[in-house]
């Protein structure tokens, strides 16, 4: 988060389990979120590429879930 605070990331928690959640946003937003809400469970970190391919820009226009979700 300190090196690239605006870089897009997804943190997926408890994949394939009952309490599966996704946290989407910038690295800085995720750092702030998890400082306020200490993480529990297993996580997978997905980091967006520096430049999105053309097909991803089309998909980015499709509405998605809220950026921050969690319990």
Spatial shape:
flat
- Sheet with most strands: strand arrangement: 2-1-3
| Share of β-strand residues | 15-25%
Rounded Rg? 13 Å
Order of helices and strands: EEHEH
Largest sheet: 3 strands, antiparallel
Query: Percent helix among the residues?
Result: 10-25%
The overall pLDDT, averaged over residues, is: 78
Number of helices: 2
Write up what this structure looks like:
This protein has 71 residues and is of the alpha+beta class. The protein is 24% helix and 24% strand. The chain is flat. The mean pLDDT is 78.
Gist of the model:
With 71 residues, the protein is α+β, with helices and mostly antiparallel strands. Helix content is 24%, strand content 24%.
Can you tag this structure with a few keywords?
71 residues, alpha+beta, 3-stranded antiparallel β-sheet, 3 strands, flat
Secondary-structure map with pairings?
Blueprint: E1 8-13, E2 21-26, H1 27-36, E3 43-47, H2 54-60
Antiparallel strand pairs: 1-2, 1-3
């Amino acid at each position: 988060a300190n090196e690239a605070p605006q870089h897009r990331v997804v943190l997926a928690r408890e994949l394939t389990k009952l309490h599966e959640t996704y946290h989407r946003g910038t690295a800085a937003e995720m750092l702030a979120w998890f400082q306020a809400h200490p993480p529990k469970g297993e996580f997978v970190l997905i980091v967006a590429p520096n430049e999105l391919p053309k097909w991803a820009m089309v998909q980015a226009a499709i509405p998605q879930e809220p950026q921050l979700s969690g319990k």
